[in-house]
Amino acid sequence: MARKLFSWTLFVGMLFTASVSALAGEMPLRVLIDVRSNHSDGAHDFNTLADLAQKRGIDVLAFTEHDRFSILFGIEPVAKILGYQMQHPSLYVTGVEKFFDDFAALRAKRPDMLFMAATESTPGYGWRGIPFRNLTLHNPERHIIALGAERAAQIEALPSFDLRHAHGPFALSMVFWFLLVGGMLFILIRRRKRVVAMLLFASFIAFLATWLVKGAVDADADFIRVAEQQGLFTIWAHPGTLSGTRPGPMGVQLDTPPYSARVFREPTANAFAAIYGDTHTYTNPGDLWDRYMADYMMGLHAAPIWAVAAGDYHKEGQSGEYLGNYPMDVWAQARSTDAVLEALRHGHMAAWRTSKSKNFRVVRLAIQDGSGKRLLPGDESLVASEMMLSFQLQEKPASGRVGLADKSIRARLVVDGKVLKVFSTHLNQLLKVRLHLTPGAHVVRIDVPNQWLGSMIANPFLLRVVN
Questions:
Q1: What are the angstrom distances between the C-alpha of 216 and each of 124, 131, 179?
Q2: 108 and 194 together in one domain
Q3: Is residue 353 a part of any domain in this protein?
Q4: What is the pLDDT of residue 9?
Q5: Where among 322, 347, 372 does a domain terminate?
Q6: N or C: which end of the chain has fewer CB within 10 A?
Q7: Tell me, what's the pLDDT at 23?
Q8: Are residues 17 and 68 in the same domain?
Q9: What is the mean pLDDT of residues 61-73?
Q10: What is the mean pLDDT of residues 24-49?
């Protein structure tokens, strides 16, 4: 009886999701996240960034600031007391309250645009190696974005803000405590204070046990848990990072290896950067993302994980990057930040990599089955086996360049991790593709591999075919 009730509830919920999605506007909003201002380590102020965004057709701009950008070196587990901190520009330094005061002023001054607040945070890091020889800071750029903050308290509650999981060198700390306690025990025993020595030794063992257990906390999981408690949308920022090991301040090496395998292992964030500055493979057909989504459809994961674009923008022209190179098309039900955040939570978006002079968008991407049910990217629903997929690209605003509409665009239809069809389309052409799927669970998505207009990855349709 309980199983039947659960199945009926799931069925009704899917129908409700599909019907709500069908009400969303045809024209998605252009959304840009992962932008740093001079409130952390960006070069430009809010007004400059808003002007650039408006010029490039951005509807929603998210300021994704470092909440705490520090290097902590010290003796664990009291590194903040017996240690040294090097602070870099971040909200911790410039002031979280100051950020939100300026943010509110910008919203009041520019009602023509939507603005969102976010952090790019380092959940935790540790040290390896020996000082003055090969000391390496491990995972300092393993970042998670927390999007949708409206109050300073939401940011100050994050574990990254108080460096809760920033650990000093483990080996050096162990040597320090063994030498210190060993020296004290030697002195006490020489002075025939054996009872005091035994109490000190027992306390030291208890201290070590407490320290080691505390050090086993998964920093990523703890950050995601707290961020979600604060109502924030979490995104792995650049999981395929190719930054490698490189020199940092004071001769320290910085090492952040790719962490894409961690992204697709629970507990995980709401989304991940599928398109950004580095080259990666986990969104290729049949790779990690497709496998994760297939497993979700089989009930092996608690929630899907969505694809977004994240550009890591700091300065106009820096490393050849410009504001708006990594935007998203987001199907929101209203022109509000709450509606945008809700659309992101449901995967109603497509991620882009483009260039300063190009502004291509997905203006239509939907599936409709024989019963008339219409779905957007990210929707999960029961459907009939016969479906029609609609897909259309436009340049908005149009540049007026001659011959642009005649250039061919290659797109791929990926079903259950396999490329089912490669088709050619053009700007402004409404492409309609018939689909016939067998009964069961299916993951259906469209992407545009890198070519003259850039590249695009849309979130999948999660379909359960019933006949």
A1: 12, 24, 24
A2: no
A3: no
A4: 39
A5: 347
A6: N
A7: 41
A8: no
A9: 94
A10: 90
- State the pairing for strand pair 271-275/233-236: parallel
Residue 389 forms beta bridges with which residues? 367, 433
Q: Domain of 115: which CATH number?
A: 3.20.20.140
1 and 35 assigned to the same domain: no
> Tens of pLDDT along 104-114?
999 999 999 99
Residues 433 and 406 in one domain: yes
Kindly state whether residues 142 and 4 are assigned to the same domain. Answer: no
Q: How many domains does the chain have?
A: 3
Structure tokens at 242: 């190719």
pTM of this structure: 0.90
pLDDT band for position 391 (cuts 50, 70, 90): very high
Q: Would residue 190 count as lying in a domain?
A: yes
- Distance (Å, whole) CA 442 – CA 464: 6
Range ranked top by mean pLDDT from 67-71, 92-96, 183-187: 92-96
- Nearest C-alpha neighbor of 271 from the set 118, 393, 90: 118
Is 367 in the same domain as 335? no
Same domain, 402 and 421: yes
| Structural domain boundaries enclosing 394 | 1-24+358-467
Each residue's pLDDT tens digit, 266-308: 999 999 999 998 888 999 999 999 999 999 999 999 999 999 9
